[in-house]
Amino acid sequence: MQPLDAPFDAVLAMPGSKSHANRALIAAVLASGRSELRHATPCDDVVHMVRGLQQLGFRLAWRDRAAGVVAVDGGIPRQPGASGTIDCGAAGTVFRFLTAVACVVPGVWHLTGADRLGERPIDGLVEALRGLGADISAGGSEALLRIRGGALRSGRVRLDGTASSQFATALQLIEPVLPGPLEIEWIGPRASPEYLDLTRLTRADFGAEDAGGGYQPRPDYAIEGDWSAFGAFLVLAELTGSRVVATNLRADSLQPDRRMPDVIADLRATGDLEIDVHAVPDQLMNLAVLAARRSGTTRFVGAANLRGKECDRLGVLVRELRKVGIDLESHDDGVVVRGGGEALRPARLDPEADHRMVMAFAVLASLQSGIEINDVGCVAKSYPDFLVDLKRLRRQSRCVALVGMRGSGKTTLGKALAERQGWSFVDTDAEIERRFGAIADMVDGAAGWAGFRAREAEVAGEALRASRRVVALGGGAIETDAVRNELARSATVIFVDTDEATLRARIAGSGRPSITGRDLVDEVAVVAAGRRPHYEGLAAVTVDGTTSIPEATADMVRGLKSLCRW
Predict the structure, then answer these.
(1) Is the dihedral of CA 557, 560, 563, 564 positive or negative?
(2) Which of 70, 331, 377, 564 is the most buried (most CB within 10 A)?
(3) How far apart are CA 465 and CA 411, in angstroms?
(4) What pTM value is reported for the model?
(5) Strands, DSSP E only, in 339-382?
(6) Residues tagged active-site
(7) pLDDT at residue 212 tops 70
(8) Using CA atoms, how far apart are residues 66 and 308, in angstroms rounded to an integer?
(9) 196 by DSSP, 3-state: which?
(10) Which positions ≥6 away from 446 have C-beta within 8 Å?
(11) What are the residues whose beta carbons fall under 8 Å from the beta carbon of 448, sequence distance 6 or more?
(12) Spatial separation of the C-alpha atoms in residues 472 and 494, rounded to whole Å
């Protein structure tokens, strides 16, 4: 993986949420009738869920796998003497949800999976299901669990929710096919309780909003885009002064990770911080990378259950980030990150087959050369196209805007930079004259400078909204609020800083209109003094406009790269 060369302005489509898809798949197969799910991205977890439900005898199949379309003919299978082995892979969600589902499907079922799956918490769910009459035992050497499925009773169960919210979700997903309501008595605090809201929403979508109500089929049901997948891109954008938009995420989603923009905003504060990530634990790895770049110490809490994920995420995070020079340590409930350290060191990082670890490590590799990541293919667990989308960022570079006084060399340097980068180029003064006629005539006309500035803002706004483009702005464009706002929103700004003597020499005899009514040359100092605070306030990179074109161009390229380096 190679570091970015410039900030990006990217538009991406996230995969379908595996959390939403797997809940919807269970609701659909338990609903008598025809359902069809769209955008159930065939990541490993969803593929294992579909296959596991098929092995239990449910009738469902991919109608268009690439598009994530699954057709379901719902209803609990009735197959005398049925039995089978269900491989859950490395998917804790699939293992827990299918443990509950297998209890209501007549037959003898053996659930198995990857070695790490046997180390992940399941006992709390098993005990709760036994309390409802389930016949579950250890699977011996052949499987993790042996389940004799059939009718369960309803009623009250005690559930330790500290290890995983998925225990409660598994129970709530099968409740609509139980003979009556299910009441959960919680023991201890609940891990990731927000995921239970997503479970309730999915149940309601399939007609089981009230306890005791059965599921109804959904002929056309769309899976939400995955906020969890978006986290790494949000952090990378924050670190590089970039912008990224996902076309298929709902702002009103019940997915807990929709809160990531707010947590990132919290990390912009100065000084030492304590951040509670109990609502977004899967984002801790990405947030730790971000915290390493801020000044001050960040203590993350609310993440104890991460030790029981695809790997011990707290332990692996500390071990691997220390390899690259980040100062952090774990505690019982999270990690402490001491930010503001030196440049990263090259290293080979081991995610221990955990997709979330790979995504966080990829953020680091996008900022520092020499970082290698083992087993990057494990991102297919939730986001098969993650690395493809990461590469797309290079093809969607953020617009670069050159600002500075008239005569500073913005047009010449802008053309040189655009040619060097292989991007398009727009000079807003030239574009204004192409559309509306000579600038001097506009300024001398009835509209005056105010009319010119309005047209300038219109042209600049359009020009700045394209990626892979260099825009040379007129010297006074930054005096307009709309232009400054668009620059902050859409562009990486380079200030071409040229001394007053050079400016006077370059504009003498140019025939440009005076801004203040004074002599064109004499007004340079006054105008420059008024504009400099805007130039400096907007600029991410500053270059000397008196150096040679090759030197200044090289300085701009280095400056853009520096924005994407640790």
Answers:
(1) negative
(2) 70
(3) 19
(4) 0.92
(5) 347-349, 371-373
(6) 282
(7) no
(8) 31
(9) helix
(10) none
(11) none
(12) 10
